[in-house]
Structures are given as C-alpha cells and as structure tokens.
Amino acid sequence: MDKYTIIRKYFGHSTFRRGQEELIDSILSGRDCLGIMPTGGGKSLCYQVPALLLPGLTLVISPLISLMKDQVAALEKAGIPAAFLNSAMDSDEYRRICAGLRRGEYKLIYAAPERLENEGFLQMMCGLEVSLAAVDEAHCISQWGQDFRPSYLSIADSLAKLPKRPVLAAFTATATEEVRQDIIRLLRLEEPSILVTGFDRPNLFFDVQHPKDKTAALHALLRERRDRSGIVYCATRAKVEQVSAGLERAGIPAARYHAGLSDEERRQNQDDFQYDRKTVMVATNAFGMGIDKSNVSFVIHYNMPKSLEAYYQEAGRAGRDGSPADCILLFSGGDIATARFLIEHGSGNDALTPEEQDAVRQSDMQRLQAMADYCRTGQCLRGALLRYFGQEAPESCGSCGNCCGRFVVQDITIPAQKILSCVKRIAGKLGYSVGKALLIRTLRGGRDQRLLSLGLDSLTTYGIMREDSPGTIRSYLEFLEEQGYLETDPQYGAVRLTPKASEVLFRGKKVEMPVREDRRREQPAEKAPSGDASALFSVLKALRTKIAQQEGVPAYIVFTNAALQDMAARAPRSMEEFLAVSGVGEVKAARYGSAFLSAIGEYLEKEGR
Ligand code: ADP
Ligand code: MG
Ligand code: ZN
C-alpha cells in the first residue's frame, strides 16, 4: 500500500493538505523532521500515515489524556489498531494493553511524556520495534512557549535508551524562532527537515469588536448563530461561571469548562459539546488543546488573551473542516489590565532562576502589547496576524472585520495637537524624549514617581487629556506615527516629532483618522479604573468597608464608588489634593481625610513611588 491509498482508504481524504506529503516522505526516508502547521492544519496525519507504512510501532507523545483518548477512538473507528496508556487507567486495562503491545497488535501507541520516565514502560518498549517517535504539541518543551511541560525535557534521554533510536518527528503550531530552536535542541533532532506551511486559514473571518456592553453583544452574536456550534473563551474561571450562567438565563444552552471543575463534570460537559447536546462551550484556555471537533463554526473571545500565539491557536479551533467560520474578539480596555495581572501574578516556572523568570515575564509583556495592538488596529486583521507570525501578507484580505467594516472619518486635529505639543514640551524640558507609556501618563495627569521626579507635572500640557482613556490616546499615537508625524526610536522606544509635525502644530493642518463605525462610540467609556488605579481602588474600598462598619452606616454613605474611583485615579498626597477629589466636601475631608491619605501614602510607598 502507498500513502495515497492509505489516506483514501483509512482517512477518507482525497488529497494531502499543504506540507503533509513532504513531512510524510521525510519520515519514510528515515529523516527526523519538524512540522510547523497552524491549528487544524492536519498534523496528526503526518505521523499516522507513516505509522501504517513503517514496520513495527509508532510511539506518539502527546500532552493530554483527553486528546489521546479522542485520537485513539478516531483511529479505531478508521480501522487502525491503536491504543493509549495513561496513569488514570486501572491496572487490568494497563496490563491488557501491554500484552497487546508485546503481541504486536498495535501500530500506534499514545502516551504522555511522564510515561517515558517510567522504568517498566521503557523496559517494555526496549523489547519492541519502535520505528517512529512522534512528539505532538512539541512547543511544550520550550520554556518560552505557552504550555511548558517539564517532562518534555526528558523525552530525548528516554528515547536514547531504546536499542535503536527511532526516527523522531516533532509537530507544533507555534512558529517563533526561539521555540523552534528549543525544540530542535532539546529533542535532539538530527538534521531535521523543517517544514513551515503557510499560516493563513482562508475560511476564517477575523473580527475585533469594541462593544459597550459585552454581555449584550455576546448574546446577540449567539442568537444570530442559534443552531451553530462554537466556543466562547473567557480569561478566568470566574468569568466562565458568570458568562455561562448568563447564557443559561437567556435560554442559550451552554456547557462550561475550566480547571476548577471536577474531572467528572469536565468530561460530561466536553461530551455534551462534542456530541452537540449543547452547542456552545464557555471555557477558559484549559479547554481545547487538541480537541478535534471539526464543526466548530465560531470562536468568540469574551476577553482578550495574553498573546497572539494564544489567540491564533484558540481562534483556529473554528472551521477545521474547511467551511467558513468566525473568529470574533470582544475587546475592552480592562482586558489589558486583567491580562497584565495574570502575567504578573501567574505561577512562575520553578525550573527557572529568578532572572530567567523575569525575562520570561518581560517577553510575556511584549506579547501582550502585540495582542493589544491587534485589538486596536484599523488595518487588515488577517494581515496583522500573518505578519506577526513572520509571513508576508497583502495590504487587505477583503474578508476580515477591518477590510469589510465601515469606516467613518474622525477629526482628531485637537487631540493630535495636544499630543504633539506635549512631545515637544517634554523634549524641551528634559533634552530627550520619553516612551509612549510616560507620555500618556503625562497627558492624563498621572502622579507616579518617575513623572513627578522628572517634573513633568509642571508642563502646560500636563493633564490636558484626562478625559481620554489610555487606550484611546495610544490609538491616536499609533495613527500619528503611521502618518509620519511621530517616530519611535527603535532602541529606546522614545517618541519624537518628525519635521512633518509642524504642519499640524503651526500650520493648522487637519488630522483625520478613519475609525470603524462600530468602534467609534466606545471612546471615553472606560469608567472602571484599570491597572494601578484599580489596585489602589481595592485598597480604598477595604478602608471604606472598615470605616462603614465602625460607624454602622452603609458604605456609600462614607464615599460613593465614583468618589473612590476618582480618588484612586488622582492618588492625592495632601489635604488640598484630597479636597479636589470629586465627591469630597470639606466635612468629609475633615472627617475621613487623614485615614484615606495615610492609606494612599502607604500604598504608594509600598509600590516604591
Ligand atoms: P492539527 O493537529 O494540525 O491541529 P488535526 O490533525 O487535528 O490538525 O487535523 C484537523 C482536521 O483536518 C481533522 O478534522 C482532519 O480530519 C482534517 N484533515 C487532516 N488532513 C486532511 C486532508 N488531507 N484532507 C482533508 N481533511 C484533512
Ligand atoms: Mg493536533
Ligand atoms: Zn483583512
């Protein structure tokens, strides 16, 4: 039998997809390989076909039990003898499969990397003819990637103990150079043929929406997709609970999935979704690595993920069968603060030194920035994704939210003048330029240590854009840069004026920015404080609760939420500044001022400002 007969006979496909044939040929010729294909690109076939053509056994190393189970079930259905071994199965079952292996009954055996560290298992494998070892989701070996699994690091050592080293084939959807090098080095691939297929998924429609009310937007999107199956990703378990409960109340049948549920419930809910008993799955990113439900026709992100890598992987679970599918991201400025919090407070990787952990966190922050830029761009979204993954892309794809969206022109001459003149004044005062973040804080009247110590609060442009959210100002900045009024120093990230800026500053040139119609209304909305202000807000709220309890009054009597928010944003340090907080009159200032001021002072000191 040849490979063409096999895909027809066992898998029912008439042709190979991009890259599959090359990878299969490489394996069959005995050469190691690394296959990099997008999610849904068809990586499994690349080792399943050789498994049937090579003598002996193919060992598939795969990170997740649920994934193994599904794949083995699918292979069995196709008439291919396969099995998996995992720690969760009872000993009878385990023994039965080992006996089958010794009798040479299986062509493929799936196992988690931890299994290879087990002496008994390795010994058994030494007695078998293993022709091919396929490492799926190979990016798990890299500490730079999303889903680092320490046990992946021991794969190479374990395989070296086999009497004959099998051909080694690694597969991943993660394309970054760092991760690629880690895979080759740590798996000890020998002169591997490396194949990177294009990352485009032409059947996916990408969109980013900036709704005022995410719940309403989500319900509307789901009502338009009543009978279709899809996934709604949320950033946290709590959000999953909240969103799925809301859908239940609205009569939209939704299952939920996150790491806080019992194994039993997760299995049940995944089944409900897999078998279309419930059409919508609301989940954290714990759901999905390797799920192969080919009729997922939309993936909606209720929150922005931490990186474009994560986003593309999750969104890519839509439309695996090749039919049109939607990938919609519901963005709000608060998502950035949440993602930043998750990065800062995420469980560190114990295998790394503190310095390395810092480096990982820093590259996480850079990835977050790229993700946020994607959410705010007015350019082709598909192009933005492809270029991020190192692939060239045309200016416009004609089938994403930005290419198809309706744009209206917004006159931003006034904010542009404010921004440019602030850049000019900062440079005038300091003799050098500063980065975007500090520039934005200056425009919004921030009170952090760095800003104050540079004396930027004495500029006339200090605080002239208080009313605009940081996200809005950033989008103006990016547009001004695109239009050549500003430039960023590639080394230090400092933002400078270009000669062209004087047209706007002194010659009355109008600046018009295209804004997607459905995004225009969002602008100053960001009511809830984000980032620093949000942490301080929690501190202030706790103090308010304590005072309210002591005085036996409801909390809002002490200060309203709005007052606390303004207080958090301004972070007053003196009684005079405290009085400027909206909702603070003289009586309240006299009564509560010292308590709140000392709480704020303590907070700022702890933050090192
Ligand atoms: P990946 O692991 O790269 O994310 P999978 O191996 O799970 O992707 O394959 C995704 C889907 O593509 C599966 O539903 C599979 O049946 C289908 N598929 C794979 N190869 C082909 C092919 N040559 N022709 C048609 N469909 C294919
Ligand atoms: Mg896969
Ligand atoms: Zn486009």
Polypeptide structure, described:
- The protein has 609 residues and is an alpha/beta fold.
- The chain has a 7-stranded parallel sheet, sandwiched between helices. Strands 8-13-12-9-11-10 form a 6-stranded parallel sheet, sandwiched between helices.
- Helix 24 crosses helix 28.
- The longest helix is centred in the middle third of the chain and has 23 residues, at 354-376.
- The model is unreliable at 522-528 (pLDDT under 50).
- The site of adenosine-5'-diphosphate (ADP) has 15 residues, from helix 3.
- The site of zinc ion (ZN) has 9 residues, from helix 16 and helix 17.
Q: Strand portion, in percent?
A: 5-15%
Average pLDDT, to the nearest integer? 89
Query: Could you give a short account of the major beta sheet?
Result: 7 strands, parallel
Bound molecules: adenosine-5'-diphosphate, magnesium ion, zinc ion
Spatial shape: elongated
Helix vs. strand class: alpha/beta
The helicity comes to 40-55%
Question: Topology, pairings included?
Answer:
Blueprint (H helix, E strand, L loop, with lengths): L2 H9 L8 H9 L4 E4 L6 H11 L3 E5 L3 H13 L4 E4 L5 H12 L5 E4 L1 H4 L2 H8 L3 E6 L19 H6 L6 E6 L4 H10 L6 E4 L7 E6 L4 H11 L4 E5 L3 H13 L4 E4 L5 H12 L5 E4 L12 E6 L6 H8 L9 E6 L2 H13 L8 H23 L4 H8 L12 H4 L2 E5 L1 H18 L5 H8 L5 H5 L16 H13 L3 E3 L6 E3 L3 H6 L5 E5 H4 L10 H21 L3 H4 L2 H10 L4 H5 L6 H21 L3
Parallel strand pairs: 1-6, 1-7, 2-4, 2-5, 3-4, 5-6, 8-13, 9-11, 9-12, 10-11, 12-13
Antiparallel strand pairs: 14-17, 15-16
Helix pairs in contact: 2-3, 14-15, 24-26, 24-28
The structure holds adenosine-5'-diphosphate (ADP), magnesium ion and zinc ion.
